[in-house]
Amino acid sequence: MAxxxxxxxxxxxxxxxxxxxxxxxxxxxxxxxxxLVTVVGVSDYLLPSPASIIEEFIQFWxxxxxxxxxxxxxxxxxxxxxxxxxxxxxxxxxxxxxxxQMSAPVVASLAVIPIVALAPVLNSMxxxxxxxxxxxxxxxASFVPVFINTLRGFRQTAPVHxxxxxxxxxxxxxxxxxxxxxxxRPFMLTGIxxxxxxxxxxxxxxxxxxxxxxxxxxxxxxxxxxxAYARAWAYVxxxxxxxxxxxxxxxxxxxxxxxxxxxxxxxx
Amino acid sequence: MxxxxxxxxxxxxxxxxxxxxxxxxxxxxTVEAGEFVSLIGPSGCxxxxxxxxxxxxxxxxxxTVEVFGKGARQARLDQEYGxxxxxxxxxxxxxxxxxxALPLELHGVASAARSTRVAxxxxxxxxxxxxxxxxxxxxxxxxxxxxxxxxxxxxxxLLLMDEPFGALDEMTREKMxxxxxxxxxxxxxxxxxxxxxxxxxxxxxDRVVVMSxxxxxxxxxVPMRLGAEAARAARTExxxxxxxxxxxxxxxxxALHQGSPVGTAPRGLENR
Amino acid sequence: MTEVGAREANAVTDAAxxxxxxxxxxxxxxxxxxxxxxxxxxxxxxxxxxxxxxGILTIALIWEGYKLLGPADGVVVGxxxxxxxxxxxxxxxxxxxxxxxxxxxxxxxxxxxLWAAVALAALTTLGIAAAGWLVGxxxxxxxxxxxxxxxxxxxxxxxxxxxxQTVPLIAFAPIVxxxxxxxxxxxxxxxxxMSVALIASYLAFFPIAIGALKGLQSPDRIHTELMxxxxxxxxxxxxxxxxxxxxxxxxxALRLGAANAVIGAVVAEVSTxxxxxxxxxxxxxxxxxxxxxxxxxxxxxxxxxxxxxAAGSVALLGVILSNYRRNEEHA
Lengths: 268, 272, 331
Fold this sequence. Notes:
The structure holds three protein chains of three kinds.
Chain A lengths: L1 H7 L2 H30 L9 H10 L1 H35 L1 H16 L6 H8 L5 H23 L4 H9 L4 H35 L9 H10 L3 H29 L11
Chain B lengths: L4 E12 L2 E13 L4 E5 L6 H8 L7 E6 L2 E2 H6 L3 E4 L11 H11 L4 H14 L15 H13 L5 E5 L7 H18 L2 E6 L2 H7 L2 E6 L4 E7 L19 H16 L14
Parallel strand pairs in B: 3-8, 3-9, 6-7, 7-8
Antiparallel strand pairs in B: 1-2, 1-4, 4-5, 9-10
Chain C lengths: L1 H15 L7 H5 L12 H29 L5 E3 L2 E4 L10 H7 L13 H36 L1 H16 L6 H5 L6 E2 L2 E2 L2 H25 L4 H9 L4 H39 L5 H10 L9 H24 L11
Antiparallel strand pairs in C: 1-2, 3-4
């Protein structure tokens, strides 16, 4: 029934529904939440009320901000380093097949193993007072999607375009500049966008594995451990905002650079 | 002055998983400067391969290919030819103008000269109004016109075209053929044109090279009596309905049939 | 704004495709899909293994080379140490790490060898991750079915599902810990391991939901119209057309879900302090690293194997279902 109605919807109605539906879902969830807390009386440790979270958020604003900056910096450094290394290595792997074959299983494994497990040894390698371990984790986590997507992008040049370049007797630098890089760019940007979320998540989660305090992850676990649940939630809200910020910035970057480039056709 | 293309004793063998495949054998062909030559034949006769050898996109196993008296490789490095493929092969992230400018850019033409030339070319193919569009905003026929403009960008004395109109509908195709006749007359370039359409070959060419498959070889070279080079510009739409045109179509068909089992038309050919 | 929902979905489908088979990820994986290559398949598979081994050896060589040549206190630029210290404490030799696996965990007489302790812990974590993965599969496919059936549900839910994964909701893990042993519903008592499985399932459901939705929506119009001409109902269309068509999308999603479940389980073990799993010994042995630096690497190798086993078992599913994957491009 709903399908039938949906298909007959005018474009305007459809637009309205596309906006309204998620908003409605959000409002309903918030409503149920508030209802659970105030009417049903769910305990604080399970679900603090939205109001008390906002209260804590305002009260601890300064520590939230500095923790966000700390974790955000780690994630940003990791993202930048991981992306650069990923792109560089992908370029090398695209050029030399041996490197590709050597790195392929390692990268495939990196994609499925819990990289944060490295956090404890990285802390001892770099010293317990260093943020470097977290940055390294974020970099490793960012590296994987950037490498995989960029390498795929480097392999997307169409045969007709390669023939064309050969017919023009273009130098390998010219081929790289006019064909290979522009072809790979959307893939590269997609990789970076995916990596942006992973970088924040990894930098934050790495804090659970020890090392210096003061980041969002550390504060969430200390607050939860001292039964300050609403405060822990406030830090969670901050980390959500941080993750969203990273995602939206990379998404914006992608849109900006790709405005006129129709995405290369992907295999479904 | 040397011939545009001089092919002598060319063989081409491809190594595939199921063993070596003889794609071309014993090819001898000369294309004079300013001459329009079509290569026609059923699928697998090696007509595209032959064109790729002239363009130095592949290398012959035996024999020599010379373009304007030079080896094919040197001719490519010196940019002696312009090329258009079956798919337009435009770079999707470049505008129409930037696509046409691509070869000029690669070969270091100054920016001012480049934009003048691009404007001329787009005018020639009738796409001046679309200079700032992107390829995905154009129809297939328009994309192909951009590709032809790009092939003409450096005023080559030789134009290589691999079924450039193959993917177009009949109406557009006839329009493009007329355009090509006009453009090639204007520029005086020699053209090697790969096609699988008999009327197309007859309408466009000074000579039609009929090829047959397994192994790819030249079956017969049919001279067209529709008008010498000088009269190329005079080929108009009316020609398609003249008696001489049908005679030529028949001649090419008969040449094609010699190379294949009697009674059945060779596969992959259009008699439209 | 209106378009964001749909495009976002695409965006994250890419995310699900990060390690999707047939994409670069799988081409990378040494165990090739059956029928992946047309000729010399066995030879190429073997070569891939060799190359992979060379890759791992290269990493070990870089490690040892740096340890040999690098300064003892690492490379420090300003206040920032950009390369690690090379002491045996910070960087044990590769052979020490491997050798340590076969020595007992502690000095106690009945102590297991390290590898056995790690394997036990890894199995525990694998069990929890599997439970979480199963929940994730049920929830993910359920959501996909709902979203496929009613477009309004897709519009309403998809943006939130996508959003939920671009933000580090795993930050909840320490809070979920507090639910343990406090939630009781009748005879049912919330166990600590359930908190861990819950977080694992939360990380697992997302790629599955997106992959399943994409798969269920993948049949061509001609196929759905064919089913219409047969007057097939919703369920028949689902069973005969949509599910089989979804297989190529679902498999990578399930594999990514499995990898995510393992990551979620390990992280949740650490942040909830659950005993018995690999997350716990990761922290515990790292704490002993000042006296026994090689020991900390045992659980790391365990976590790596764990991730590979989880993803590999799902890949086995792909072998069973290979008939539904004929249209996949063989890389």
